[in-house]
C-alpha cells in the first residue's frame, strides 16, 4: 500500500515535471523574458476595462467581459458562445495578475510560499497594484478586512498552500460573520499530487467550506479567469462575504493556449431573471405594509446594522427617514457611524453593553424598523423577552417588527418579524420613504426618551487624585482630540472591554469609521485591520484602540505597518488582564481569575525593536499631552496607557435577561464589589 502511494506520487510528480517541461515551461520562459506590459499591450488588455466602481460595496460586474471575442463552436455541440482570446499565451500566474487589473484591484495582502510561486513570480514587478506583506497570514486576512471596511471595496488575499491557507481561516470566519467582501486566493499542490498527502497539502476546500460564502478549486488554466470573475461577483453581491479560490500549482504555471469563455453567469442571476417580476411584486406589497406601519406607529425605533453601510447613500437615507417621521435611531455595533450621534434623535448602540436608553426604547417601542442587521444575540438579549410592546402592537395591527434584510437566511432566523423587505436595505428604504407621511413632532415618545437619557447616561467611577487613569476617560478624551484634527478618523479595535468602551465613549458621526470584529469577536483584529484601513485611506488618522491581551495576539504586525508605510496609531489600554473575561469571572465566578492574567512584553522596548515610536503614560496629568502627541506623531506609534484594573463595562445585560434588565452603574455597588474582590483574592486583585 505504502509502496503504491509512493510510486503514485513519483509518477505524478514526474508527469507534472514532464508536463511543465514540455508545454508550459517553454512558453512560460518565452513570456518571462518579455516585460509584462508588452504582453498586456499585445493582447490589448486591462486599460479599456478600468471602470470607475461606485463606492462603497461596488459590484465587480465588468459589464462587457467579451472584448475581443471570437465566436466559436462549443465543443459539446452546435450552440455558440462568446469566447475570449485576449489571455492566450499567458501563464496562470499572469492571468491572475490580469484578472486583478480587470477587477480593479488596487491592493493585495499576502504571503508567498512554494505552491503559489508561479503567481508571485507573475506579480513580481507589477505596477498595477500595491502589495502588502504581513508577518503572518492571519494578519493579511485582517488587513484585507480593514481595507474592505474602510474603502467599501473587496479585500484581496494571496497566500500559499497548507499552513498559509489554514492561517487565514480565522479572518475568513470573521469576514463571514460581519459580512465583509474578501477574495482569498490560496496556492495548492499540483492537481496530480492532490490526495497524496503531499508536502504542504491541506484540504482547503473542505476546511474553508464553513467559513466562506463560496469556494472553488480551479482545475485547469482555461477556467481560471471565469472563476476569478465569479469569486469577485459572489464576494461583493448580496450580503458581502469571503470567497476562497484554490489554485493548484500546475494551473498557475500552465500557459493558456485556447480561446475561453470568461464571463460568468451565476445560478442566482438566472433565478432572478426567472422570478424577478413576481419577487418584485412581493417586495412592493411589503414596502406598502411597512410604510403603513411606520405611518401609524406611535413609538417607533429605527435599528440600523452594518448592512446600511453597504450602500453609499445608506446613512443619508437613514437620516432622511428619521427626520421626516421623527424616529429615534439605535444601531448595532457594526451600524455605529451610520447615524450622527450628535443628533438628538440618536439613541446610541443597543444590546448587551449598549446604552440603557436604546435598550429601554426598543423594549417599549410599538414598532421596530430593523435595517441591514441580523438580530445578533448580543443585540437582543433573551429572545423571549425581546420587544414585548412591539409584539403586542403587532397583534393589534398597530406596529410590530419590520426587517429590511438582503440575506433571506437572516429573516426570521432569530426574531420573527411582521413584515420583511428582502433586498438592499437602503434601496428599499428609499422606496418606503416616498410614502412615509412627515411627522412634525413626537413629543410624548421623545420626552420619555429624554427622561431615560438623563437617568441612565453612560457613567463610571471617576478617578481620585492618586488613582490610576480610567480607560473610559482615555477614550472620551481621545475622541475629542481626534475629531479636532480635521482629518477623517477611523478607529479599529481588539476584542474585550476596550472594544465596548470604544463603542460607548467615542462619538460616532460618519459611516465606515468604526472597524471592529463584532460577530466572531476576534482578539488580534485591531492592529492588522488598522494597517489595512490605513492602506485604503492613506490620509486618514487611523487609530487602533487595543487591549493588552488582544494586541499580544498579532503584535508581530507592528513592523509590517512600518514596511507598508502605514502610520497607524496604536493605543494600548493596558489593564494587565483579559479584562472582559475577568469581568465575567468577577460577576459570575466568585472572582476566581482562572488564567486571565498574561505576562505582557515591555511595550516600549517592543516598539523600539519593531521600528515604531513609543509613548507611555501612567499618571493622570500626563494624559492630555500624550494624547495630543500621539495623534500628531507622523509614523506608526504606540501609546501605552496604564489604566485601572478590574473596571466593569456597564451597563450590562446579563445572559438570559431581557434588554431592559440591565445592570447599570452604581458607585456604591462598585465599591462594595471591589471590597469583596480584595477580600476573596487576598488583596492580590
Ligand atoms: C481569539 C480569541 N480568543 C479568546 C477570546 C475570548 N476573549 C474575549 S475578550 C478577552 C479578553 C481581552 O483582553 P484585552 O484584549 O486585554 O482587552 P480588555 O478586555 O482587557 O480591554 C478574551 C480572552 C476572543 N474573543 N478571541
Ligand atoms: Mg486587557
Tally of distinct domains: 4
Which cofactor or ligand species appear?
thiamine diphosphate, magnesium ion
Alpha-beta classification: alpha/beta
The CATH class of the largest domain turns out to be Alpha Beta
Strands of the widest sheet, in order across it, are 4-3-5-6-8-7
What Rg do the Cα atoms give?
Answer: 27 Å
Strand coverage percent: 5-15%
Q: If you consult CATH, what is the topology of the largest domain?
A: Rossmann fold
Q: How would a crystallographer describe the biggest sheet?
A: 6 strands, parallel
> How far from one another are the termini?
60 Å
What is the helical fraction, as a range of percent?
Answer: 40-55%
Name the poorly predicted regions: 1-79
Described by the principal axes of the CA atoms, the overall outline is: globular
